[in-house]
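#struct-pred
JK: can someone run the complex with 1-deoxy-D-xylulose-5-phosphate? inputs below
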Amino acid sequence: MLTLGVNIDHVATVRQARRTVEPDPVAAAVLAELGGANGITAHLREDRRHIQDRDIRLLRETVRTHLNLEMAATEEMVSIALDVKPDYVTLVPEKREEVTTEGGLDIAGSLEKLKNVVDRLQSANIPVSLFIDADESQIKASADTQAKFIELHTGKYADAPNPEIRQKELESLKLGCEQALNLGLRVNAGHGLTYINVYPVGCLPGMEELNIGHTIVSRAVLVGMERAVKEMKLAMRGEF
Ligand SMILES: CC(=O)[C@@H](O)[C@H](O)COP(=O)(O)O
Ligand SMILES: NCC(=O)COP(=O)(O)O
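RT: done, structure tokens with the ligand placed:
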């Protein structure tokens, strides 16, 4: 069965815009689960631009489905993961200056370091997923690390400027999925998926979980706006 991991990072982005307490991504995770999320994904960035350490600790206590902690393969993050024990960790690349995660990890280029990180996490019973592009050598290197999963970066597919390029990117994802499954890896995907472009990715044979965030948070803001304004009118009359 194809499952949905709801990424709540950008609920925290709104909170951090004011450094206040609302909206709380932990509350958003509870509501996402009520809505049918099969898992909750949160990315603790080294620069703490959205999700904070406190969020991860509270998510660990409150998430009833599974918690996927996205993080860079640094000593600081490994020690947080070993302490919090999420249900799985997704290792992702990070650049301070990027607006969002721009591409996949270069597994082949830092194989020994990543093998070590995967081993330390998986020895603590935390399965590891590697966020990579659908590239043959990266998939092969991912299998060499003994990680349980890969997550195929769907950004190029999502950002394709025309249907021909989108179809070509979808083919790469399909081939990547096949190759990974043949190497014994489980396959997730995500990044930039929307209500409009998600369906073909979900149809890829063997695809297990899609991690989707920005578009769900964006839609939640819009579908919730009418009620939020009505409630403020009540509050202004002392009736809320
Ligand atoms: C790792 C990834 O795919 C990102 O989608 C992330 O989880 C969302 O956060 P950023 O937009 O800060 O990269
Ligand atoms: N790993 C991808 C993810 O968690 C969500 O990405 P996006 O939907 O926020 O682009």
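RT: quick notes.
Residues 13 and 50 are 5 Å apart (CA to CA).
The chain has a mean pLDDT of 97.
JK: thanks, will look after standup
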